[in-house]
Design goal:
By secondary structure, the chain is an alpha+beta fold. The chain is 34% helix and 27% strand.
Length: 302
């Protein structure tokens, strides 16, 4: 502002100066000074705009009713659940700006040209969505543990499972997946019962990146012992390129706490070395990921 006033003053002096040549020189100085002021202003705007935008976005997020839910979903964005479903268009508008880069956000509506019951159509659309893999179902918190009718209709179907249900602030969400009633991928005979591997979900294998892996376990009977799961990834030549060993769910759900017929979602991340050979196509890579359980030495206190 000060530079602009000085420029105007110099230009005015150039116009009223008694000596014409001196006045012209003053006006030229004013023109150069004006150009400098404009350039400096442009630089300030270009430098300050991103910071101002970030501050504005941070303030908007701090005022968002579902800010904790948004932060949680961002922390989960590197996993295999990459779709968020809901039935409220307004909720979609509230979440889309914050989550659109990490997830696909879907509104499940009941529209159909046959004029069938809306709730039934919504449940069918959820079933079609589940065929593509896991997804998050999210609603606004309403003070109860009940979900919307369309969601409840779908959740009541056989082989539909829910985990990680929580309410963080103004929103509540749950992770949903479907396991087909087919032959188990593997079985492990524990000392006190049998553990079945119901399904496996793999991400994309890339050298130098972490391969997300999800195992779906089910104990056929209560298990008295605690077991460690070890996962291994093999190259086409049989060479092991990655491994991760830990109790199920990183120790948060030991096998001795599993209930009979309860399905457990067990997540792993296999770090693939940067110098690993190029990974074969996805279908060929699936048999290379193997999961087994073993009973580690344990120290019991009386």
């Amino acid at each position: 502002m000060t530079g602009l006033l000085i420029t105007i003053a110099i230009d005015f002096l150039g116009q009223i100066w008694p000596q014409a040549q001196a006045g012209i020189r003053l006006q030229r100085v004013a023109v150069r000074l004006a150009a400098s002021v404009m350039a400096a202003t442009l630089v300030v705007v270009l430098v300050g705009a991103p910071h101002a935008a970030q501050a504005y976005q941070a303030r908007r997020l701090a005022e968002h009713p579902c800010r904790q839910t948004i932060a949680f979903l961002h922390a989960e964005a590197n996993g295999l659940t990459r779709t968020i479903a809901m039935e409220e268009t307004e909720l979609w508008r509230d979440l889309y700006p914050w989550l659109r880069q990490a997830y696909t956000l879907v509104v499940v509506d009941g529209y159909n040209p046959e004029d069938r019951p809306f709730e039934l159509v919504k449940a069918e659309k959820l079933a079609a969505l589940a065929e593509q893999g896991e997804f998050w179902w999210i609603e606004r918190a309403n003070g109860t543990a009940e979900w919307a009718q369309a969601a409840m209709n779908f959740f009541a179907r056989p082989n539909v499972y829910r985990v990680d249900a929580q309410q963080l602030d103004g929103c509540k969400l749950v992770r949903v997946f479907v396991l087909d009633d087919v032959q188990p991928i593997g079985m492990f005979d524990a000392t006190s019962g049998q553990i079945v591997l119901r399904g496996v979900q793999l991400g994309e294998a890339k050298a130098g990146a972490t391969l997300p892996l999800v195992l779906y376990w089910q104990a056929m009977t209560p298990i008295e012992e605690d077991y460690t799961v070890f996962t291994q990834l093999f190259a086409p030549n049989g060479h092991m390129v990655a491994q991760q060993d830990n109790p199920p769910m990183r120790g948060q759900a030991p096998t001795s706490a599993w209930r009979a017929n309860e399905t457990m979602r067990d997540v792993y991340g296999l770090a693939i070395p940067a110098d690993a050979a190029p990974t074969p196509p996805r279908p060929a890579a699936r048999p290379a990921a193997r999961a087994t359980a073993r009973n580690p030495p344990r120290t019991r206190t009386p």
